[in-house]
Amino acid sequence: SVPPVETRAPPSPASRQGQQALPPASGLTTLHWDSDPSALQLHSDSDLGRGLIKLAMAKVTHVDFPPREMVSYSKETQTPVMTEQKEEDEEEEEMAPTEPVPETEKEKPAQKTDEEEEEAPPHELTEEEKLQILHSEEFMNFFDHNSRIIERALSEHVDVFFDYSGRDLEEKEGEIQAGAKLSLNRQFSDERWSKHRVVTCLDWSPQYPELLVASYNNNEDAPHEPDGVALVWNMKYKKSTPEYVFHCQSAVMSVAFAKFHPNMVVGGTYSGQIVLWDNRSNKRTPVQRTPLSAAAHTHPVYCVNVVGTQNAHNLISISTDGKMCSWSLDMLSQPQDSLELTFKQTKAAAVTSMSFPLGDVNNFVVGSEDGSVYTACRHGSKAGITEIFEGHHGPVTGIHCHTAPGPIDFSHLFVTSSFDWTVKLWSNKNNKPLYSFEDNSDYVYDVMWSPIHPALFACVDGVGHLDLWNLNNDTEVPTASITVDGNPALNRVRWAQSGREIAVGDSDGEVLVYEVGEVRLVFPRAVSIYNEWVSANWPAPIRIMEQEPVCQLIVSRHIYWQATVRVI
Amino acid sequence: MSVEETIKRIQSQKGVQGIIIVNAEVLICNAGIPIKTTLDNSNTVHYAGLIHQLVMKARSTVREIDPQNDLTFLRVRSKKNEIMIAPDKDYFLIVIQNPSE
Question: What Pfam family is a match for this entry (chain A) (predicted)?
């Protein structure tokens, strides 16, 4: 490139126009470079062959060029005033954040003002200005008035969007199934005491509704550990360890809280021994045991129950050889009374389950291994088995008499579950089952009526299903059903006294407590009776909505009309 | 009762996610400036500006339908939450609540 040479006149842009500079007045030949490097011209007046150059005044034209425009892009976007542009905003958002350069929090987002006001400079609010506003009277007036309104609006929680068809529930996560009727609340197991054992029995405490006792059989992987374990679990607290740990030498097949002795837990074992644990003692072993003699039981005891009243009660136990003993809890050294349950004096009933109707201490029903169900009574000239009910094709695993209280007496009804994949509904006035529920495809291990709902019962089977049947809804399929993860065999089902929770014991030593989401209580028409009962028995807060008499419980040929009350 | 205490009380209500007080004046071009807020700065500024425009539009709608009428309260219910706006001549009180919490 051409090095710049000092010339007389500073090269102006005008010179590029081809302006010729005036030659020096002295006449000396000078050489000067044309400032345009692409053309070098040597002006010389002694150029051979050229004559004198004629010089004239040149006209200077002034041209003004504006400075070169610097194109720059600002990083802010203006949220447009026009509503049509709102969709574009979402795309633009990722490209450019909508905040101004935030050095101080007082800086005003200038871009946010309407575009019509572009000319006005953005006004910043300093902290002092803000404080001033906050303390001004008009602000206080505004705030006082409007905060009141907002607080009222905030506290209203009316969900106007609720869809009774349940369609909007389908969009939610898959855990909501069957209309959110059954949901897992707690799961209890203990690494040392319940793992590798099967839950053989469950019972809720009559005195403390949050306590649940579970009995377990032996742990084959740990032969040195006690064969029989009973754990008392607590629903009230979040801790995952048992409240009490009890054990004994023989596998516990049945367990119950002693109804009128809140500190005692009764267990029936595989060896035939009945054991009594006391939570007042510091021992984990039983404080009392029945003798292993022919006077007591020599076969596994699958049923233990305390029946009677505070002043006159007995512990009833039945073993699989058909022997029924009644004991006093103060003295377990010998039974107060014993009875052989034999059908027609020849066939001893191999009893697997028993149930007493509500309020009855004399008559009861038992289910046996050969599939037959018997009614029996404890006292009187005809003590022992009264009648046989045949219908099941496999061992009866569970039996339960109807116990829901109410003005209509359903105590003649009972349900049974069996290995023959069915649950059957019976009336003790009828030798044949009233109805057979055949939705299961595996052994049904246990069944229990709801303590508060006369048409509801739960059953569990060997592939992890917990089914709730509502006879008012459907007798073909369960109203609600849930499958336990891993499909373990569910051995036991027990409703809590509130009727809102169900405890299930499985073959892996786990006790699962499910909450029943929606319960429609069924009551006869007398509004006053159920208002009273509900407020006495239902945990607050509740709201009773009266509906028209809607459902009917059909049993044999009688139709019972009842009014439905929804408690929400 | 002081402004601070009231704001604290509102904030302690079930599901309240944030409270913003915004300056409403349109003639002065500091409209939509948050005066007090419980949210972080960027969100506050975002909400303040957007809601300001929304309220202006809502108010003009109400006024156009009936010039004697005026906007008193605005509730924007969305899938995830609810924005309640109590507008005034000079200021707006905005509360964002998640009612399912």
Answer: WD40
